[in-house]
Recover the amino acids of this structure.
């Protein structure tokens, strides 16, 4: 499983790696501490690293994805392909062909239809009274 993950650039960090196997003996403790003896099957991994190394010293074209040069270059190409091609291009095409949610195109067509209809009838495009003043019911004048 780990070899498959590392092939795709998905290796576990050292903090999550599997520790060496440890066994606790079932015999009675011989010392005065009162705890079971713990024995290591493998010797602890000795680090030969001398601190952090600048990744640009090993790979001048370092992109920040991996310390391996081939994997770093491959991951950079995948990320930029997905970011530019898929999200920007296909996202723009997808949003362009979405239906008219706020009905702006319908409102424009309806306004153009009403303008043509009013011009055929000889009426002004917009009348001075939007509502018919004879149908407006006003409150009675208040006595002051």
């Amino acid at each position: 499983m780990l070899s498959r993950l590392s092939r795709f650039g998905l290796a576990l960090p050292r903090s999550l790696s599997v520790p060496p196997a440890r066994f606790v003996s079932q015999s009675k403790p011989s010392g005065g501490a009162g705890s079971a003896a713990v024995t290591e099957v493998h010797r602890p991994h000795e680090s030969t690293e001398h601190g952090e190394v600048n990744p640009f010293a090993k790979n001048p074209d370092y992109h920040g994805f991996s310390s391996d040069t081939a994997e770093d270059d491959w991951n950079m190409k995948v990320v930029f392909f997905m970011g530019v091609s898929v999200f920007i291009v296909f996202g723009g095409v997808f949003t362009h062909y979405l239906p008219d949610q706020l009905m702006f195109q319908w409102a424009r067509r309806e306004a153009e239809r009403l303008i043509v209809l009013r011009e055929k009838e000889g009426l002004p495009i917009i009348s001075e009274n939007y509502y018919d003043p004879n149908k407006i019911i006003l409150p009675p004048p208040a006595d002051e």
